[in-house]
Amino acid sequence: MTHQINWEFPQALEDEAIYILRETAAQFEKPVLLFSGGKDSITLVRLAQKAFYPGKVPFPLLHVDTGHNFPETIEFRDWLVNTLGLDLIVRNVQDSIDQGKVQEETGKYASRNALQTVTLLDAIEEGKFDACIGGARRDEEKARAKERIFSVRDEFGQWNAKMQRPELFDILNGKINIGENVRVFPISNWTELDVWNYIRREKLEIPSIYFAHEREIIERDGLYWPYSAYLNTTADEVPFRQKVRFRTVGDMTCTAAVLSEADKLEDIIAEIMEAKISERGARIDDKRSEAAMEKRKQAGYF
Amino acid sequence: MEVLRIATSGSVDDGKSTLIGRLLYDTNSIPQDKMEALHAASKRKGLDFTDLSLLTDGLVAEREQGITIDVAHIYFSTPNRKYIIADTPGHIEYTRNMVTGASNAQVSLILIDARKGIVEQTHRHFFIANLLRIPYLAVCVNKMDLVEYSEARFNQIVEDFQQLLAGASYKAQEVKFIPISSLYGENVATRTGIINWYQGPTLLDYLEKIAFDQEDNRHPARFPIQSVIRPRTTEYHDFRGFAGKVTSGHFNVGDEIISLPSGQKSRIKTIEQFEKQLPAAHARESVVITLEDEIDSSRGNMLVKTDNVPEQRKEITANICWMDQQKLVAGKTYLLQHGINRVKAKVQQINFVIDVTSYQHIEGKNDMGLNDIGSITLKTAQPIFADIYAKNPANGAFILIDEFNNTTVAVGTLI
Q1: Tally of domains within chain B
Q2: Where is the Tr-type G domain positioned along the sequence (chain B) (predicted)?
């Protein structure tokens, strides 16, 4: 069955997200926007810009750099921050490794995805951030489907699915106890298509890896992995050049590419509507077990 | 594109999760890898069919017990509109989750097991949908395959339901009865033709044609101020705008307004949305409003039009649903949050608790426990600018927050 594509962005979603961002700025003392360089956090930056215009965005961006990012993402991040005049804080997973707080994974599936939680929690503590704004969406994954818009985390950053505060109407309760902090998800109700339609409507720039390009890849477990110095490969995994693009921006060690010729936003959107693999299906970190996401959330992951 | 929000409520095993799975499946909203994961998970459970309910029961505990314990949000879209389903548990222990899911819904979807007919939970679901004045009610009589697709059985259930409707306080609800089989997909998104005596729409057809609720636009204009935007840059040196989301009604440039609680009057100079200047702002739109005069307004204040000013209330009577393990105690002080405005509030008295099955009022109660619904009287430290919920729902609801542990303990609607 072929989908008819609806190119129209539901405006109600932007109004809701702006309302949430304004509540976050008003109810918390030190909010921070978690920025990954991916399309969801780029969307958040746009929403923040709109929410406080003509004033400045009243909170900084925080990027947890795993050291395994696509160079294109880092380049884009710096360009965006400079162009919009935003404050950016960068914290490195490498520092957490050097401090002996986390240990690098080994083997061919080694990634720094799980490690970044420690760096993130340290950065939250160091910056005394009481609200961390993230671009997670409920349609991404079934544990995320149950997350609140203001999601309270304890001192260890843990999410307790059974003890969540009820959220009623559009009333947001951001009151917390000392040591707790809140994860804020303004685009909870957006789907992947909504995000793309928004990027299209707002004419937003995005990192080049979202568009089809040729690069060195290897094939493993039926997925195309970007070949890089960070990826541990076996002797029979020989890199080859292929035209691909990425549906999400994660680390080079845990984000798989999809074969694609889409080099325009419209083509990407059309491709998503036809897609046979869901967005997180290309995230190797979720495949570890059926409850992978819920377990990482309990441990303070986004 | 419009967004239609639906709340589903059903009993533990009346096939609600299967119904939602069916809606996603039939609107082609399940990607292939999720479908494969579903097949595999169903097989592991020893099922010989694909269990579509596994799509929505997201948490580990739920998968283990085979029940739904929280509110899950599910998204699908057709070329016509975007749908958000708040899927809530049906059991009495989760009444508060049901209220949560229903609070944002325009459609309430009630499932009835054709074999069992109307049960205690049906009463509770209907009561909540009616209490929160959800405009549309889709009553799906499910598992028709297990009663041999009997028309007589369906008619009997419809007739029983009419008695529930007769006892309801909110009469304007539009109700639609649909005989379905979610397991086989009959009358969910498609028609297989087995139920040939039913000529009405499928559930999806019905949802597609619901007139989008514009009611809020006709209600009195209310604009709570979320923050004051003062850039103090060279370019915007004297700019002073009020950021907020229109709760209800609409504002036009040039309208005369009053700021509450100060009572100062002015006129709307501009309505702005980022770099755009708008002629008007409608319900649920996030905008920045600037005024002709410098008036003293800040977060928590409300701009309203001079032709319809809400009463400034310090004593309110409300229906509430209690949502906390610790009981509500008469005489205790809580924080009341109406929209974005927070004030201290003391519970004066508990008027009555409602038996949501028989609708009987039980008087003389000194406390209210988890999931209880009832009427209380509160006194607030500062006035709030709320409307009666029945007259303007968007400006008639509030939550109560426990001052000591900061959790949300109740939701209320003004009566």
Answers
A1: 3
A2: 1-215
